[in-house]
């Protein structure tokens, strides 16, 4: 590499580093932790509400999952969850509400293309691979469990 090319590259790297936004890692981590924690506290409160209204523990778990999915999907549909994500980063990807967001967001983005070619075909664009590999891994784990259980039992 010629010295002139090296110098241009070095100047360009310096220019990029000056213009790039500075990372606020500690702030971002704190916000992610705080918002993720708040989402989890809301989920726990919904679970406790289920117990309070007389549901058994297993039913209260289902109740809290349904409510949190509903809240995540509704807030995504209203455009609020995206703002939470911009503010909280990874803290908004708490499993249940983040999964609901990953299904609803692509569907909302492509709704103008119609119910079948837009919403229906784009709904699982993000969540599809998660479902495929999650279900595949659970089948493999189930087969291993069945084999090991058969050998030991």
Largest sheet: none
Instruction: Assign a percent range to the helix content.
Output: over 70%
| Structure summary, number of beta strands | 0
Q: Which ranges are low-confidence, i.e. pLDDT below 50, for 5 or more consecutive residues?
A: none
Q: How many DSSP H or I helices?
A: 7
**Succession of helices and strands:** HHHHHHH
Mean of residue pLDDT values: 83
- Gross morphology is extended
Q: Kindly provide the radius of gyration, computed on alpha-carbon positions and rounded to a whole number of angstroms.
A: 23 Å
Strand content: under 5%
**How many angstroms does the end-to-end distance come to?**
68 Å
| Helix vs. strand class | mainly alpha
Describe this structure in words.
This protein has 153 residues and is mainly α. The chain has a domain at 24-122. It contains 7 helices and no strands. Helix 3 (57-77) packs parallel to helix 5 and helix 5 runs antiparallel to helix 6 (115-122). The protein starts with a helix and ends with a helix.
How are the elements arranged and paired?
Blueprint: H1 3-19, H2 25-52, H3 57-77, H4 80-88, H5 95-109, H6 115-122, H7 127-152
Helix pairs in contact: 2-3, 3-5, 5-6
Structural features:
single chain; 153 residues; mainly alpha
């Amino acid at each position: 590499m010629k010295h002139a090319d090296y110098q241009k590259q070095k100047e360009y790297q310096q220019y990029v580093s000056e213009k790039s936004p500075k990372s606020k890692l500690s702030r971002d981590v704190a916000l992610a932790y705080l918002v993720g924690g708040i989402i989890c506290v809301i989920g726990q409160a919904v679970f406790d509400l289920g117990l309070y209204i007389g549901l058994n523990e297993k039913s209260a778990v289902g109740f809290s999952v349904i409510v949190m999915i509903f809240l995540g999907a509704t807030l995504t549909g209203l455009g609020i969850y995206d703002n939470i994500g911009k503010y909280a980063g990874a803290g908004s990807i708490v499993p249940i509400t983040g999964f609901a967001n990953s299904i609803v967001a692509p569907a909302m983005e492509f709704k103008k293309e119609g119910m079948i070619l837009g919403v229906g075909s784009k709904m699982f664009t993000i969540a599809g691979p998660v479902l495929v590999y999650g279900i595949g891994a659970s089948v493999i784990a189930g087969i291993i469990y069945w084999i090991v259980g058969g050998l030991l039992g």
